[in-house]
Each structure stands twice: as structure tokens, then as C-alpha cells.
Amino acid sequence: MISWYHSWIAAIRIARRDAWRSKGRSALVLAMIALPIVGVSAVDLTVRSSQLSPEQHVGRVLGAADAKVTDPGMDTPLYQSPDAQSYAPVGGYDKYEPSPGSRGEETADPAPELPAGAESVKDSTAYGKVRTRYGILDSELREIDPASPLVKGLWTLDRGRLPKGSGEVIATNAFLEESGYFVGSTVTPRGSKTSYKIVGAYEIPDALKQPQLLAPPGTLLSALDRDLTGAGSPGVRTQDEYLVKVGGEGFTWNMVKAANAKHLLVESRVVLLDPPADSQVPLFTEQPGDAWQPNSTIGTTELAIVSTVVGLAMLEICLLAGPAFAVGARRSRRQLGLVGANGGDRRHIRAIVLSGGLVIGAAAAVSGTAVGIALTLGLRPLLEETIGTRFGGFEVRPLELLAIGLLAVLTGLLAAIVPAVNASRQTVLASLTGRRGVRRANRVLPVLGLLAIAGGASIALFGSVSEMGSTVVAGGSAIAELGIVALTPTLVGLFGRAGRWLPLSPRLALRDAVRNRGRTAPAVAAVLAAVAGTVAVATYEHSREVQARHNYVADLPFGTGMIETNENSAFREVTSMREILSKELPVAVRADVDRLVVGKPGCSPYSASPDCGRAEVIIPKEQRCPLYTAVSGPSSFTVQQQKELRNDWRCQDGNFGVQVPLVIADEKLLSVLSIEDPGAAAALKDGKAVSFRKQDVRDGKVTVRLIMSKDEEASGNIAPGESPPGKDKVFATYQAPESAKGYGLQLVLPPSAAKKAGIATAPFGSYFTLDGDASSEQRQRLEGALDKSGLDASVNIEKGYEGDDSLVMLVLTVFAGLVTIGAAGIATGLAQADAEGDLKTLAAVGAPPRVRRTLSGFQCGVVAFMGVLLGSAAGILPAVGLRLTERRAKADMIRSGIENGYAAASEVAPYIPIAVPWPTLAGLLIAVPLGAALLAALVTRSSGALARREV
Q1: Of 10, 315, 407, 838, which is least surrounded by CB within 10 A?
Q2: CA–CA gap between residue 863 and residue 323 (Å, rounded)
Q3: Which residues of 440-454 are buried (b: 16+ CB within 10 A; e: fewer)?
């Protein structure tokens, strides 16, 4: 035991000395092993630091209060989970019926009934639009008493002071950054007649990216609501919460259940810190607890995927680092021979080489972990801003970092195993004289490789046609790739047969690579693994790009555009929006479109306010799809009947959807939409409507129903397929032919028809064509002008499919190129160490100095080319398997839909192409080996000093 200990101590000392002498090679291997350790340790520290303790979480949610009480608006007793993230009405949702009027206009809710003697502060929030230096910003508006002691911990004041009265607000740093304002600026919510001075800046620890304005109670939301309703727009919809302080033992679980009985939802400090058992939670006893609690465990599939990725990453590092350890062993062969000459046996030789992996692995673990800690500390503010939350602290878990470090040590040892075994097989005489014996090729490894390739490919293809899916495909592809790695020495030997047709330098390089497969094969395998992954991802992404291009459906005719407001309340500003459009873009034809107004003109289409409403095209009863009008829907019919109805013209739906399908416009709209139908244009001129959906037209007429929200609310439950009651308007209509695309428009009414029917209208946008193309500068000027005017508008110009995967392909190519050059460079360094005698012989017999440089370049290029070629072939398999899996899944889904009556028989088979990215492959096969060869040639000296041969 003592002898074993001392021998390993000596081996480690020798390995440490060799590593220090060969600083360049040691640094390269250390960097390869340490880089993943840096990333994994940094991720571990970031995740652990971002996880809050229960006390920290409660402080950020409740401040200094004992509880937060909310009325969810269900008007019935509740059951809730201890963390208040899940709740349900008593008896379940099946028996719950909302009380009439609960969806009506928002009114000020009365304060909830709180425990006697409780201290409370109201926290009201709403969303609104605020005018900024750049235009309009969606922001949260908040009212709360900032001087109350209960709010301590909810936010952190960064600079300035708290607001003290009306006309003053504080803003989050995110709001100031996005709005262009600063402390001291004046801000005005859109629609408000009151401006507010920003007197301070703060941040919300759990929502750093949240734009928010905070004002004292009664100074912001009520004034904004009054101004909006006075202008005919919907008012502010607030959500009220109450921070409560009860003293004593706090807001206990029994108090929470008592509040639930009063229709209230409670987040309690004592309950969050010490939650009750599931048996004491009615929500969990009424229904299974796992139905309300998210499953945070990692599934078997996810664990298998993570293990596979980690295993392949370790394999890649071992393949890259292994030749470097072989370089060290080869250059230290005389030293290893002296160890053997002085009584050391093979296990001592193996221990010395393995100790090299142990030393560098340990150094990589220490340095990688240290760098990971330093990076996490240094980048903490940036990480917090990226995640959007402040860390609770800097938490280091030593056992987890130790496990990550051991992974580096294990990787170093695994990378040194093969060089250690090869070094131990050298005889003492061969090591001392520098001669290398002739080793027989391993005949078992190629057989295992062929079996792995065949088995892996079979598994992958089986996964593509079975229900097991992508996990099996990925596993089979990984097995096949390992088989190719095992077969690499044999494949390298096959490449050697091409040497007879090559000039001197590439012939020598190829001969050297084939004769020394022990160092060539790992480097080729490393390149193979990296390129295989690159080609797999590139092929898969390129195939999806081709599929997306094929499936793309244009929103408008090519070159046609549309501009529209995103808010109905901005109807007064549409005229200026249209003027800005015509000023900034080369508009050829502009067709202005209006919408029908039911109730207040500023209401949103489906507003619940009783003063709002909407217009809806009514389908005649005889032309309604039976699948949607039956009492039980499609289940009212047999499967055969459903299949027949899916092919019925009444059940055919379009693929388009627009914000306003019923518009008021003249015949210019038809020309903009490239509808060349003389009948449609003539109909609009004659005051008739034009319909693009034949289900709506019966006997040349269309019915439009004007529905008020209050009438819809009073009507209660409505039968399937029926519309709420309202006032019907009938219009003479021309049905456009099926060849005419309405691009989502359902009905076009001429202005004269709407006026004759006595229906009010309001502008909302324009369709337009351009005289040429809109340049990027023109689009930017248009967006800037719209922002400066305060208009919340969207502009869409149809340019066809614009997907572009060139950046992804470039990144993948660069990644594969870097790995290829690194692996080929390592192999070239080992080749130069092995071929030093041959190079000296060439110099002695008069070879030109450039032969040394060209030989080095071709050695690097040969390794790179073989690895890229084999990797390109290996990478196609997983991509093909995944695409076949998707094709089978989509085909099964459509077939099942047709068989069960969910889809029409006319549904076409899915288009799931398998497209090879030839430009990327060409770059890998040509540019990468050529670049590697040129780089190796440039960094190699053209001449070396002559020396006597060792004897």
C-alpha cells in the first residue's frame, strides 16, 4: 500500500513538472477542459443565487404586512392553496355559475371585510399608455400610500424622493430607460388632462423590467378614468389588493379559510413560511393535490437527454485532449524509457501519463470553478438585469461545485487513458532510441463500430416510424455516431489508398496520417463529432426553413400594405396617421377603411361596458354549419356524419383573420387588393355590399346585427350557433367569386349603404399600394413619425416570405471550423513531434525549406478533410430521422382527424421536406480544411536545425 502511494506521488510530481515545462500544450488542454466547467459552475451559481429563501420571497410579495387580500371576483366561497397561486369555487367549477352582471362595467369594489382591528393599505394597479419622448409606452399604473410602513420591501428607492401629493409620481428604472425620461421630467398618461412630475426612481426586485408609475392614492387612476370616460373611451380597469397587518400570530390558516368563505383570496406570511399539511387544505382534499401543484421533477426522457448531451460533450473533450496527452507522452518517451530502465514496470509508465491527465484535470477544475465564481460575481448586475430579478444573495453550494470539479478531473483522466496504455506498451529499448514498433491494427474495434452503426441507424429509423419519437431517434443517432468514431482508424486507412495520385507533400502527409492512426484517429473523430452535430442541426433547420417558405400564406398581395390603429379610442387621430403615411412612403393608391360603430366610438370590439357594442354578420340559419349549431357540437353526429359535414361548403372556414373583418370602403379597396372583378367594383359603386364568404349571403342579401353589451349580458345563455339579440340591418350584397381573395375581409360596405342604414362609422386604417419599394430609411422615418405623434399604430407591408437562416448557418459553420482547426492543429503538432526525424532527413538530402511548411499544412488539412467528410455523412442521419418523425406525426394527426371527423377529406398530406444545406456543406468540405491547412502552414517554421540521430 505504501509502495503504491509513493509511486503515485512520484508520478504526479513528474507529471506536474512536465506540464510546467510544456506550458503551451498544458494551457491548451486545460482551457479545453476548464471552459465547460466555467459555464456549468457559473450557471449553478446563478441559479442558486436567484432562488430566494421563503423569508426573502415573502418580503418581496408582502412587504412588512402579515397578508395580502384580493377579491378574485368569483362572488362565491373559495378553496385556495397555501401559496394562493391556485384556487377554485367550493364544489368545483362544474357547479359554479357566475352571478348575472359580473361581467358588466367595472365599478369601484367595496373594501373587503377584514379582521377586527386590522391595519390595511390599498394597492391598486391598472395598465395604460403613457406618452414618452419616443411615442407611446404600455406601462403599469399604481396607486399606493408610499409612506405606509406596510409597503417596506415592496420596492427599492434608487434616487430622488417619494411622492407626497397630487401631481407627483415615481417611476421604475425600466420606465425611465424605455421612455427617455429622467427624474424631474413631466409625464402624461394618454387620454389624461393631468401631467405628473417624476420625483424619484425605484426598482421592483422581482420585476426589474416592469415599466411602472407609482402615485399616492386618488391622484392618478381616478383622474385618468374620469378623463377617458369623458372623451367617450373605456375607463381604467383596476385591480385592488389590500396589504393587511393583524398583529399577534399573524394571518393564520384558519383566518385564511374564513376569508375564503367571504370570497377572498389571501397570501399569508405565516402560511407561506409554515404551510399546513395537504390534509388540512380543502382544495387538495376536494381534488387531488397533484392537480394543483406543478410537477417540478425531471422526467426520464429529460434525464436521458441531459445525460446523452453531457456524455457526448465529455467524449468530444476527450477526443480533443487525448492527442495532446499523446504528444506529451511521445516527447517524454526517453524519460519514460529511463523509468523502465531503472526498474519501473508498465503500471508506473501508465501512472505517469495518467497523472498528466489528473494534474491538468485538477488544475482545470480549480481554475474553471474560480473563473466561474469570478464571472458570476463580476457579471451579477448584468445577470440580474437579464433575468429580471435581484438575487437574494450570493449562494455557493460546495458539494455541487465539487461535483462539477470532479467532472473535470474525470474528463482529464479519460482523455489520458489511451495515451497511457500506448506508452506502457513501448519497450524500454524503443523508448530510449526513439524508434516505434509496428503494431497490428485492432480487428475487434471495426466490427464493433459496424455493429454500432447498423444498430444505431436501425434504432433511429425505427424511432422515426414508431410512437417513441425523437428521443429514440436521438439515442440511435448517438449510437451510430459512436460506431463511426470506433470505425475511424479503419476509415483513415482506406483514405491512404488515394495517396498514389497525390504530389509529394500531400502524399507524405496522408502516408504519415495512415501510418500513425493512433494519433490521427482521435483528432479525426473529434472533428467528426463536432461536424456531425453541426450538419445535423444545419440540415434540420434548413429543412424547416424550406417547409416554412412552402407553407407561407401572404396576408396581402405582394407589395401591398396596411396601416391601422391598435386602439379604437384613437379614432380621432386616424386622419393624421393617414397623412403621415402618404408623406413618408411613396404611396401609389390609398384605400381608406372605416368600421361600424355600435355604442361609444372608442369602445373595443368585445368590451363588457354596457355603453359599448359590436357589429356582427349573421349567417342565415339554413347556411350555418351543423357541426357548430348542434346542442352538443360535433359529438352530436356519428363519425361518418362528421366526415361528410367537414366537406360541406357550409363548414369551410378561411385561413385568414384580421382585426376588423367588416369594413366601410369604396371600390379603391378592390384595386389595392388586386381583385379584378368588374361585378364587385360595380356593386360598390351602386351602393351594394361585397361579400367574400358565401355562407353569409342568401338571396343576394346579408344581415348585419348591431349588438349592445348590455343586451348580450341580459340575454343569458345563448344556443350554439346563435348570436346575441340586437338590431338587424339588411344590405343588398354581391357575392364575390371564389377566385377573389378577401385576405381576411368578410364584408365590404360602401359608405352610402352605412349612411342609408343609419349606422355610425369611425376611421381605423388604410390599405395601400406603393410606387416601388419602401426602403429601410423610409420605414424608419414612418415609424419615427408615428411614435412622435403618439399614435399606437401598426404597419404591415407584404414582402413575401422573409425567413432567413443564413445567420444560424454561419454560426454553425464557424463553430465547426474552430473545432476542426483546433483538433487538426493538435494532430499536426503530434505529427511534427513524430516526424521530426523524417523532416531532418528531408533537409539533409536537399529538400527545399518550404517542404517542411507545406508538409505541416497538408498534415493539418488531411485530418480536417477526413473529419469533415465523415462528420458530414454522420450528421445527416439524425436530421433525416427527426424530419421523418415529424412527417409521421403530422400524417397520423391528419389521418386521425379525417377518420374521426375532425378534418375534411380534402386536407392535404403535410409537407415535411428533407433539405440538405449544400452551401454549408460546401463551406465545411472546402473552406474549413483549406483554412486549417493554410493556418498550419503559416505558423510552421520553414526550416529546422540539423541534429544527430539518437542511438
Answers
A1: 838
A2: 13
A3: eeeeebbeebeebbe
Helix axes 346-378, 380-387, angle to 10 degrees: 70
Question: pLDDT value at position 664?
Answer: 93
Instruction: Name the grid cell of 860.
Output: 493539418
Taking each helix axis as running N to C, give the angle between helix 23-50 and helix 2-21, from 0 to 180 degrees, rounded to the nearest 10.
100
Query: Which uninterrupted H or E stretch holds 388?
Result: none
| Partners of 589 in beta bridges | 769
Residue with cell 456531425: 532
Dihedral (Cα; 882, 883, 884, 885), 10-degree rounding:
50
Contact status, residue 916 vs residue 876, Cβ threshold 8 Å = yes
- Cα 603 to the center of its chain, rounded Å: 35
First CA to last CA distance, the chain: 38
Asked whether 98 and 713 are in contact (CB, 8 A), the reply is no
Contact 250, 60 (CB under 8 A): no
For residue 723, the tally of other CB atoms under 10 A from its CB is 17
* CA 302 – CA 287 distance, rounded (Å): 28
Nearest-angstrom CA–CA distance, 456 and 485: 13
Cβ atoms of residues 112 and 262 within 8 Å? yes
User: Tell me, what's the pLDDT at 70?
Assistant: 92
Grid coordinates belonging to 130: 403613457
Strand order in the sheet with 689-691: 613-618, 701-708, 727-735, 689-691, 747-749, 662-664, 587-597, 760-770, 560-565, 793-797
What is the CA 866 to chain-centroid distance, rounded? 35
Q: Which three cell numbers mark 911?
A: 409537407
Calculate ∠ Cα 366-368-374, nearest 5°: 100
Cβ neighbours for 28, distance < 8 A, ≥ 6 positions apart: 324, 826
Gyration radius of the chain over CA positions: 37
Q: Give the DSSP per-residue string, 424-485.
A: HHS-HHHHHHT-----PPPSHHHHHHHHHHHHHHHHHHHHHHSSSTHHHHHHHHHHHHHHHH
Per-residue pLDDT of 859-872, as tens digits, reads: 788 888 888 888 88
* Beta carbons within 10 angstroms of residue 682's beta carbon: 13
Distance between CA atoms of residues 690 and 948, nearest Å: 98
Q: What is the pLDDT of residues 830-854, one digit of tens each?
A: 566 556 666 677 667 776 767 777 8
pLDDT in tens, 626-644: 877 777 777 777 777 777 7
Per the document, the length of the chain is: 951
Selection from 235-244, 842-851, 888-897 with the highest mean pLDDT: 235-244
Per the listing, cell 427624474 goes with 183
Rounded to whole angstroms, the Cα distance separating 704 from 755 reads: 14
Contacts for 651-658 with beta carbons within 8 Å, 24 or more apart? 651/625, 651/626, 651/627, 651/904, 652/904, 654/693, 654/742, 654/744, 655/553, 656/553, 656/555, 656/742, 656/743, 656/744, 657/744, 658/743, 658/744, 658/745
Q: Tell me the C-alpha distance between 775 and 550, whole Å.
A: 26
Continuous H helices in 621-665:
626-629, 639-646
Closest Cα partner for 881 from 498, 598, 496, 476?
Answer: 476
Torsion of CA 531, 535, 541, 545, to 10 degrees: 130
User: What is the C-alpha separation between 485 and 678, in angstroms, rounded?
Assistant: 69
The per-residue DSSP string of 848-873 comes to -THHHHHHHHHHHHHHHHHHHHHHHH
Q: Quick one: how many helices (H) and strands (E) in the chain? A: 31, 22
Report phi then psi at 697, rounded to 5.
Answer: -100, 130
**Interatomic CA distance for residues 895 and 901, integer angstroms:** 10
pLDDT at 209 over 70: yes
Neighbouring C-beta atoms of residue 238, cutoff 10 Å: 18
